[in-house]
Write a structure and sequence with these properties.
Elements: H1 2-15, H2 25-41, E1 48-55, E2 62-69, E3 85-93, E4 96-101, E5 109-115
Antiparallel strand pairs: 1-2, 2-3, 3-4, 4-5
């Protein structure tokens, strides 16, 4: 009986999970990797990814916002406003990826600009 209840509860909980579509997954992985590389260059390696969300963008651009938080001394990340936070924005336009720091007020500050050779991110590979 307990197993049936646990199974039903698991199905209900997991049905609420939203999977990213196949077009944005590669961009999310590239943006996450570039953002973590930027944090390493700034000697902020203790920050951990807290949240990743799609941003509002004018087509054909795509935007992903990444929020990194520094865990407290116990290694726990809380949703507290008092924990040090770094917010980054990753914008993909055709053959260019721009990672920007989002200050509390004002415009995003570009910190990393990557030019791609082809439109490889978000497009399926051709079977050659």
């Amino acid at each position: 009986m307990k197993n049936k209840i646990l199974f039903i509860f698991s199905c209900i909980v997991l049905s609420g999970c939203e999977l990213s579509d196949q077009a944005t997954y590669p961009q999310q992985q590239v943006c996450k990797s570039l953002s973590e590389g930027y944090l390493r260059m700034q000697n902020q390696m203790t920050y951990e990814l807290w949240k990743m969300e799609k941003g509002e963008a004018v087509a054909p651009a795509r935007i992903i916002r990444l929020t990194y938080k520094k865990p407290n001394e116990n290694g726990v990340m809380l949703s507290s406003q008092f924990l040090p936070t770094v917010e980054l924005e990753c914008t993909l336009r055709q053959q260019q990826i721009v990672v920007s720091v989002l200050p509390k007020t004002g415009q995003p500050i570009p910190v990393l600009n990557v030019q791609l050779q082809n439109d490889a991110i978000g497009t399926p590979k051709s079977p050659d």
